[in-house]
Specification:
single chain, 62 residues, mainly alpha, 2 helices, 0% strand
């Protein structure tokens, strides 16, 4: 018994490229680290929340 297979040459769907809440804040984050290299993740989260209105979890920065 022969089975017929249909192969697609184009993607079945157009997935949205991966992005992060932090994509637009890269310069701010790098600036925090350059200004104070011993800054903690908790301090970075606090600055992001208060100065950029970005609420994220610690694992997004680690």
């Amino acid at each position: 018994m022969e089975t017929s297979r249909s192969w697609q040459t184009t993607p079945a769907h157009h997935a949205k490229p991966w992005s992060s809440k932090l994509d637009g804040h890269e310069i701010f984050i790098v600036g925090m680290v350059e200004a104070r290299q011993d800054i903690t993740l908790n301090e970075m989260l606090s600055c992001l929340q208060s100065e950029q209105s970005v609420g994220i979890g610690r694992n997004m920065l680690s």
